[in-house]
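To the wet lab folks,

You asked to see what we're planning to order before we commit. Fair enough. Below is the target structure as tokens, and below that is the sequence we designed to fit it. If anything looks off to you, flag it before the synthesis order goes out.
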């Protein structure tokens, strides 16, 4: 009986371990690309990220589908999302723009919170990417 109990505990513990795998892509509008971009916040185009509640649009080659929106959520936490509208097929209007602490999709005027990636009444959230803080001025965004 003790052996069964230990095996059960071991099995449950193994299920609770989080695996580091690529972000799940259940969105039929957005393909899943692998990439890695390093941002140096001492460069002028990324300097605004040093301040909480600020965001930048990164449109470098290979950075996501339609570029990235990187957001400083405060307390050393950075969030990164794809700039492609998550509830629209890719088109001329499906690149979001930054509007304060929101991202706005021009196709349907939906506004997504950069804190959560969600928009009221929309099925899919913004596609989130992993962010690693390298040092005080460098972050890496990847998928």
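Sequence we intend to order:
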């Amino acid at each position: 009986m003790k052996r069964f109990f230990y095996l059960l505990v071991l099995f449950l513990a193994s299920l609770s371990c989080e695996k580091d795998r690529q972000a799940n892509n259940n969105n039929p509008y957005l393909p899943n690309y692998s990439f890695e971009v390093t941002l140096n916040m001492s460069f002028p185009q990324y300097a605004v990220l040093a301040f909480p509640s600020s965001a930048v649009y990164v449109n470098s080659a290979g950075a996501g589908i339609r570029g990235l929106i990187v957001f400083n959520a405060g307390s050393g936490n950075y969030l990164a999302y794809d700039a492609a509208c998550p509830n629209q097929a890719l088109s001329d209007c499906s690149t979001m723009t930054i509007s304060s602490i929101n991202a706005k999709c021009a196709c349907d005027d939906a506004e997504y919170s950069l804190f959560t990636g969600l928009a009221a009444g929309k099925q899919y959230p913004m596609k989130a990417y992993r962010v690693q803080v390298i040092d005080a001025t460098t972050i890496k965004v990847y998928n």
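Structural context that might help your review: DSSP finds one helix and nine strands in the chain. The longest strand covers residues 128-135.

Thanks,
Computational group
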